[in-house]
Design a protein that fits this description.
The structure holds 2 protein chains of 2 kinds.
Chain A: H1 4-18, H2 24-48, E1 55-63, E2 68-74, H3 76-95, H4 103-122, H5 126-135, H6 137-147, H7 152-181, H8 188-192, H9 198-215, H10 224-231, H11 234-259, E3 266-271, E4 274-276, H12 277-297, H13 302-323, H14 326-358, H15 363-366, H16 371-374, H17 376-390, H18 396-411, H19 413-437, H20 446-454, H21 462-480, H22 483-498
Antiparallel strand pairs in A: 1-2, 3-4
Chain B: H1 8-14, H2 16-34, H3 41-65, E1 71-73, E2 76-79, H4 83-103, H5 112-131, H6 135-153, H7 160-191, H8 196-229, H9 238-245, H10 248-283, H11 304-328, H12 333-353, H13 360-390, H14 401-404, H15 406-420, H16 426-441, H17 445-473, H18 487-505, H19 507-516
Antiparallel strand pairs in B: 1-2
């Protein structure tokens, strides 16, 4: 049943593409219906898979001559991320209710992207996963290049080329692993059990891991992320930060770590104090956490603050992966969900609630606009989202980052210390943006007040309220009762760590 | 060759597909000149194109329905049948038919009958080289094909560019044919035979006796000649000009049919080498016979086996690098397609350089050339339509295409993404298939490194394909008048795009079909 999330998304995209021009309202409602159906299926699949472990959805031989299987399956990790995709896609459509330019094409690309994302999370064949992974590249390009804002063509092309370069690295690793295994099957399980030589894994692992991690925003390959996020239209930046970056992290976990576990072994020598790929990538993750936070602190553009904060938060995911223990990986998966929801919310507030009304994202200009008074809903939504983003208790980010840090502490205490600095800076940049954008304390002059009175900003619409509520409730629910996700994540991570969970 | 024992009935049967094309060519000329001289241009074009398509269908029937016997003189096979030759022949005929259908609605020539006749004769040359197993027949087939292509390039008589391109193409072609012939004569001198398997064996023995440098010279000469045909760097200079100057259907023909036939020939050569290796593998030794039987056994096994792949690797790497990088700088879509064709030839040459046992490589290469040819025909079809509507083949002419003709824009999207190798389109499977075949044939750091290079450059290629798609979908056009397509062109282009998607979603279909020729 869960497999239908993929099919209805692609079918929806096709229908949208064939819709006649000018039927904007129909296009919107149809897209919302498709995304809501996807969310419903994701929730149903999530509930049905409670305590079920890994279940195979479809298994058919796709290309007999090469042993490629059309193998869709779901374990706890997949179900959590499919749920995230469902939530993010519905919210994204609610926040793109005001798209009037080529509406049907917008939603066609949007739903095609969603379909590809669902496909990645449900594929248990290396090859199938790769196909869905690449399907997601093209819609991203057009979503940004056609409907984007600041330097959209540059941002779109940069994103497309980074993604494609990353997937080229993955493809090389895939081809090499396929040829080296001689298994005549490309299912992840077959490759994991093919007994690939440790020496081979040691060079293939970093290739595949880096290829995926580019999309997860790993420093120093993160530069596509801020420019891409800023250039993208609101819904696309929500999806980019919310689910597309998770594709990369998911690939790192499921494919790189799952298929090449010995790639994390020690090299047998040390170079600059680093003795294994695990330490290298953990170092890069920590640098990403601190660097992203520091750069976010210095941004003048509101959206760039959020863009760099995504780099910082995704660093926690990668750090959790490199902790390579139960709690660290649990935290990494939980952080994927948490960041997906929170970053989506932040981008929605900045891009839709604020920018579409003020037509500026410069903090210096927003400072003069007294948005707390004029857009109270946006201000309070951002306060709550900001608190969630800082990782305060009660929200999903807290549980996730705590677990990542605990896992990292078990592995190497200094990782935790360094990442802790990132959290402190995170509080600072969120506070700074919040204060500058919404809560300036200078009292407006009377003529300014009069001007603001006569030039009211558009009221917040119902789709926007609904979208904010959906995302806020998701992060609150997980923050207050994290077991709801962890019950699913823990057994799947345990199986993955044991090497038999493929 | 032993001409005394030629069985002409068998020869006729073996060359029935070629005969069908020639009869169709004559019929087209006759109908055009005898009945339609006073008819309108449109009718003449339609009749000529459809008659040509009929000829191609008859040819396909002849290839598929008749038993694959091939043709031999004595013990030497002259024309092979089935296997790679069969696949390539059907591909040549199908692609020729498609390029003929693109002619419908074109008005670059007042002599459609002659155009179609030349296309069919060139296609017959393609059929011959796809099956040829003898140096002389290879050369005759190549010349038949090439001469047709020169004429086709020049067919837009009112266009100076067309004439210039044809002259360039002809000069390069004549030069490279001379090289090829010289190389063949050296091979004949070394081996004493013109039959491919004997040439391989003979040159091996000769090089073992100390003639290796001469063999190297001969192989480089052959590589010059064939490298020209497939537009491999550094013999590619004609390609951008010919692609740009030739009328669109002719350019589609050059880019697809001629490529398929030339790569089929390269496969025959690689196959011959492999068969010989198989012989060595089975017997474990080669019996040396010749003027000095007591000579020392070979110290180094130099021959086709090590030299030929080396030459191919050099050509392949140069083509991938230069083709992809030069394509980045193009502003004309045709030149872009030309440089991308050079890059694609580079990928295929990599497959030929690491040619493996058990037909896997041959099938992967044929799969690649076939799907590439199909996609390119579609791409040139799109270019032709846009050029007729806007009068320009530059990228800017594509601006706003999604508004002017959504179907044409969708076809462009699918075809160019397939060329870039994005799944689930067929171009992706072709690449994957090919690179997997390279790695199965040879799993060494060299082959992995070269595959990595190829994959990396195909990532580069996305940039220039997206440049075209960016015009079609992102940039607004200055002119928003709808573009009309001839119904036949629409059907052909949509069918090609649909095939690209379908074969991409079900890659087993085409693979199974290709494999059926090897049963």
């Amino acid at each position: 049943m869960l497999a239908w999330v993929i099919y209805i998304s692609f079918a929806g995209a096709l229908v949208e593409a064939l819709l006649p021009r000018g039927k904007n309202s129909a296009a919107r409602w149809f897209a919302l219906a498709v995304a809501a159906a996807g969310l419903a299926l994701a929730v149903a699949g999530f509930a049905a898979g409670w305590g079920a472990g890994r279940e195979v959805l479809v298994d058919a031989v796709w290309v007999p001559s090469m042993g490629i299987h059309y193998l869709l399956a779901a374990d706890g990790i997949s179900r959590v991320l499919v749920l995230l995709t469902g939530i993010a896609s519905v919210a994204g459509i609610l926040f793109s209710w005001n798209i009037e330019l080529r509406t049907n094409q917008f939603f066609a690309f949007y739903l095609a992207l969603i379909g590809g994302v669902y496909g990645v999370f449900l594929s248990f064949d290396f090859f199938l996963l790769f196909v869905f992974y690449e399907i997601a590249i093209v819609p991203k390009y057009f979503l940004i290049a056609i409907w984007g804002s600041t330097r959209r063509e540059y941002g779109a092309m940069k994103l497309a080329l980074y993604s494609f370069a990353g997937s080229a690295m993955v493809l090389i690793g895939l081809l090499a692993a396929y040829a080296a295994s001689g298994a005549h099957s490309t299912t992840l399980a077959a490759l994991a059990h093919a007994g690939l030589p440790a020496g081979f894994q040691l060079w293939c692992f970093p290739l595949v891991f880096t290829g995926f991690a580019i999309l997860a925003g790993m420093w120093p390959f993160h530069t596509w992320a801020p420019t891409g996020h800023v250039a993208a239209p609101t819904a696309a930046s929500m999806l980019l930060a919310g689910v597309v970056m998770k594709l990369g992290a998911y690939g790192c976990l499921r494919v790189a770590i799952g298929v090449f576990p010995h790639g994390l072994d020690r090299w047998g020598f040390t170079f600059l104090g680093l003795g294994s790929w695990r330490e290298v990538f953990a170092l890069l993750a920590v640098i990403g956490i601190v660097y992203g936070a520091l750069v976010a602190l210095a941004q003048a553009d509101f959206k760039f603050v959020i863009g760099y904060s995504s780099v910082s938060h995704m660093g926690f995911v990668l750090l959790g992966l490199m902790a390579l223990n139960q709690i660290g990986l649990d935290g990494a998966v939980l952080q994927m969900f948490s960041h997906g929801v929170i970053a989506g919310l932040l981008f929605a507030i900045v891009g839709r609630l604020v920018y579409d009304r003020t037509h500026t994202r410069q903090l210096a200009e927003l400072e003069t606009m007294h948005l707390a008074r004029r857009l109270p809903f946006a201000a309070w939504a951002f306060v709550i989202a900001g608190i969630a983003s800082m990782g305060l208790p009660g929200f999903s980010g807290f549980v996730a980052e705590l677990q990542v840090l605990a896992g990292a502490w078990q592995a190497k205490p200094w990782w935790t210390v360094a990442a802790g600095i990132g959290i402190v800076v995170g509080v600072a940049y969120t506070w700074r943006a919040l204060q500058k954008a919404f809560f300036t304390d200078n009292v407006p002059a009377p003529h300014v007040l009069e001007y603001e009175h006569t030039h009211q900003l558009d009221a917040i619409t119902w789709p926007e309220r609904l979208g904010v509520a959906l995302l806020l409730l998701s992060t609150l629910a997980v923050g207050l009762y994290p077991r709801i996700l962890l019950e699913q994540i823990e057994p799947a991570v345990k199986a993955l760590l044991a090497g038999g969970g493929q | 060759m032993n001409y005394a024992g030629l069985n002409y009935a068998a020869l006729f049967q073996a060359t029935l597909p070629e005969t069908a094309l020639e009869i169709a060519a004559v019929a087209v000329l006759f109908v055009d000149l005898a009945f339609l001289r006073r008819s309108g241009q449109k009718l003449r074009t339609d009749v000529a194109a459809w008659l040509g398509v009929l000829g191609c269908i008859a040819g396909i029937w002849a290839v598929c329905a008749l038993p694959w016997r091939g043709f031999s003189a004595g013990n030497d096979v002259l024309l092979s049948a089935g296997g790679s030759a069969g696949v390539a022949q059907v591909a040549v005929l199908v692609l020729t038919a498609l390029t003929l259908l693109l002619l419908v609605g074109c008005e670059f020539t007042r002599n459609p009958g002659e155009y179609v006749a030349v296309v069919l004769m060139a296609a017959a040359g393609g059929l011959i080289i796809a099956a040829a197993q003898d140096l002389l027949i290879i050369f005759i087939g190549l010349e038949l094909l090439s001469l047709g292509l020169y004429v086709l390039t020049a067919f837009a008589k009112k266009s100076g560019q067309s004439a210039e391109a044809a002259i360039k193409y002809y000069l390069f072609g004549g030069m490279s044919a001379a090289f090829l012939l010289f190389g063949f004569s050296l091979l004949y001198g070394l081996s004493g035979s013109t039959s491919l398997p004997r040439v391989v064996l003979g040159t091996y023995l000769a090089s073992a006796r100390g003639a290796a440098p001469l063999l190297f010279v001969a192989l480089v000469m052959v590589a010059v000649g064939l490298g020209f045909k497939v537009a491999a760097v550094p013999f590619h200079f004609w390609a951008p000009d010919a692609y740009e100057g030739a009328p669109a259907p002719a350019a589609a023909f050059i880019a697809s049919v001629s490529k398929v036939a030339s790569f089929a020939l390269l496969i025959s050569i690689s196959d011959a080498i492999l068969q010989w290796m198989g012989m060595l593998h089975m017997t474990g030794r080669v019996t040396f016979s010749g003027p000095s039987p007591g000579a020392a056994p070979p110290r180094v096994a130099i021959g086709f086996v090590s030299l030929w792949p080396l030459i191919l690797i050099v050509l392949s790497v140069a083509s991938m690098v230069l083709g992809n990088l030069a394509a980045l700088a193009q502003s004309s879509v045709r030149r872009l397609l030309a440089y991308s064709a050079i890059a694609h030839a580079g990928y295929i040459l990599l497959g030929l350089a690491f040619f493996g046992w058990s037909n896997v490589s041959a099938q992967a290469i044929l799969y690649y050339v076939l799907t590439y040819g199909l996609t390119t025909i579609g791409a040139f079809g799109v270019v032709g339509v846009v050029e007729r509507a806007t009068g320009s083949g530059r990228m800017e002419a594509f601006a706003g295409l999604h508004k002017r003709n959504p179907w044409l824009a969708a076809v462009t999207l699918i075809l160019f993404l397939s060329l870039a190798g994005i799944p689930p389109l067929v171009g992706f499977w072709a690449k994957f298939n090919l690179f997997a075949a390279v790695l199965t044939a040879s799993h060494s750091p060299v082959s992995i490194g070269l595959v990595a290079l190829a994959v990396a450059f195909s990532a580069v290629s996305l940039y220039y394909y997206l440049q075209v798609l960016k015009r079609a979908y992102v940039m607004p056009g200055t002119d928003e008048a709808p573009i009309r397509m001839h119904p036949v062109t629409t059907v052909v282009l949509v069918a090609i795009a649909a095939a690209v998607v379908l074969m991409g979603c079900f890659p087993g279909l085409l693979q199974g079909w290709v494999a059926s020729f090897y049963a």
